[in-house]
Amino acid sequence: MDIEISKARKEDFPYIREKIKKYLLDSTGIDWAQFFVARTEDKLVSFGRIIDHGDFFEIASLGVDYYHRKKGFGRRMLDFLVQEAARRDGQKPVYGVTHVERFVAGCGFVRVENNYPAYLDYKRKHICRLDESRISVMKWAGGSA
Ligand SMILES: CC(C)(COP(=O)(O)OP(=O)(O)OC[C@H]1O[C@@H](n2cnc3c(N)ncnc32)[C@H](O)[C@@H]1OP(=O)(O)O)[C@@H](O)C(=O)NCCC(=O)NCCS
Q: Using DSSP, how many helices (H) and how many strands (E) does the chain show?
């Protein structure tokens, strides 16, 4: 199934807001201009955002509609977001904070244990809604996306 990824439009915001709540994703500092959506046959199936923290990018709030999982849409969206961040500034590192390490690793990220921005540790401990031992900070290693 083919998907088309584009910047989120105003009419997409209620869908994204509802899914962020439902999938317990990061809702901090939501700025709709950060979001991209994926559509297939005109139906929204995935979303995610790029947060520009100044000296690094963070990919966050990424989700795939429950009924459309395991079809490769999540990977397509993550690959797209990474490429878009690299296109904006190829020198800036790209991070993600996640409980689905295997999924993120499949898109070229590696787990980092230290030397990452302090905000991401704060997020791991205080913003993510799972036990911090299940949350990893991942850094894009380049290449596979
Ligand atoms: C995590 C999520 C985005 C994956 O989306 P998806 O479209 O089902 O993922 P894909 O089909 O693109 O899968 C890509 C790879 O990741 C793996 N994967 C997908 N979900 C996984 C999970 N929950 N745990 C471990 N691996 C997973 C797949 O097996 C696949 O690996 P393969 O290529 O070796 O077969 C989706 O399950 C989701 O929206 N979950 C709820 C929101 C969430 O947890 N977001 C955090 C994302 S960092």
A: 4, 7
CA of 64 relative to ligand 1 center, distance in Å: 8
Q: With 70 as the cut, is the pLDDT of residue 48 above it?
A: yes
pTM of the model: 0.95
Domain extents in the chain: 4-140
How would you list the strands of the sheet with 35-40, edge to edge?
Answer: 4-7, 35-40, 43-52, 57-64, 94-98, 136-140, 109-111
Nearest-CA residue for atom 32 of ligand 1: 106
Q: What is the CATH code for 4-140? A: 3.40.630.30
Instruction: Give pLDDT tens digits for 92-141.
Output: 999 999 999 999 999 999 999 989 999 999 998 887 777 777 899 999 99
